[in-house]
Amino acid sequence: MAASILVQGLVKRLGKKLVLDGLSMSAEAGTVVALLGPNGAGKTTTVRVLSTLLRPDAGRVEVCGIDVGAEPRRVRSMIGLTGQFAAVDGILTGRENLELVGRLYRIGRADARRRADDLLERLGLSEAAGQLVKTYSGGMRRRLDLAASLLIRPRVLFLDEPTTGLDLRSRIDLWSEIDLLVRDGTTLLLTTQYLEEADRLADSVTVIDRGTMVAQGTPAELKEQVGGDRVTFTLADPADLDRAADALAGHGGKEPFRDRTRAELTLRLEGGLDTVATMTRELNEAGIDDVVHTVRRPTLDDVFLELTGATAAEAADEANERGTRARGRRGKPSVPDRNGAGR
Ligand SMILES: Nc1ncnc2c1ncn2[C@@H]1O[C@H](COP(=O)(O)OP(=O)(O)O)[C@@H](O)[C@H]1O
Ligand SMILES: [Mg+2]
User: Fold this and answer.
1) What beta strand segments (E) does the chain contain?
2) How close is the Cα of 9 to the center of ligand 1, in Å?
3) To test ligand 1's pocket by mutation, which of 10, 17, 49 has the most ligand atoms within 8 angstroms of CB?
4) Nearest CA to ligand 1 atom 12
5) pTM to 2 decimals?
6) Which ligand is nearest to the CA of 39?
7) What domains are there in the chain, each with its CATH number?
8) Per-block average pLDDT, block size 10, for the chain (343 residues)?
């Protein structure tokens, strides 16, 4: 299959900052790729280059085989874009917003209307279609935004953090809608800080950190790459964390990961449950008696941890501390399946 999105060695500076440092990624036609990375990693910048809003400084960037720098207008005619913040207009109704998009793209009035009604219906907005968008909830705005970007039946759709800031229920609803809407041949590039979102929607995931690709593969491949089950020990007293980590040195191939807020140590489980029993005994021998353990399959967050040395949540916090542009609201990345048995 042909690549709908091709990025090779993309370099982009903004001001003095080298935001994209030789990024490479691609998406086969008709698939969903997730660009996963913490706040400040360069996801929005990548989407802006791909959607012709920014010119690449170096590298090869093609959408449907067309060079974005050389023929931006041709690229624009093939793509849809939904930004990180809802772009719909509050003083128009839902339907009026879609009609406006239809006019901007010069779709015939009747055609636009039919398509708008269809999308409003499929996104559960029919009843609210005549209401002013300023009365919509965050989830409704995102759905309208999605409808707006799908109105022109783009061959490639970019969704920049489509569910950031939504509550879990709305996020899950939107995931199924995105899933249904894109399964008709559209190539979707979605950026996200949510590991679950990439896991749920993407055929392939590109993990980026500080402007470069750090891993690429299907969610299953990425999880396999980091190997076996994970075991987490939750201690009664966070002050015991370092001592507990010392007691477990020699297990898991590397230093256990310390989560000080949760008083948890996580490490790779080499061997079976008898190893957990051995580790528990070693903790007890070190004077740490009150521990609870959970064993689970690796999640994408473990992938992240292996690759970047931080969990997605920590990386996001760090990026914010490094002085990422102040934003009105910030989605907290979630850490999925911490205690669950895995999927
Ligand atoms: N106009 C700009 N000038 C300078 N730096 C910028 C500009 N826009 C973004 N950046 C920086 O580029 C980095 C990546 O930004 P962005 O692509 O928005 O990341 P993400 O979408 O992954 O959170 C951030 O560190 C951000 O502060
Ligand atoms: Mg962004």
Assistant:
1) 3-14, 17-28, 32-36, 58-63, 66-67, 79-82, 156-160, 187-192, 204-209, 212-217, 230-235, 257-259, 264-268, 291-296
2) 18
3) 17
4) 19
5) 0.75
6) 1
7) 3-217 (3.40.50.300), 224-321 (3.30.70.100)
8) 89 96 95 90 95 95 96 91 69 91 85 90 92 92 88 89 82 84 85 84 92 91 78 94 93 86 90 89 94 85 72 61 43 34 33
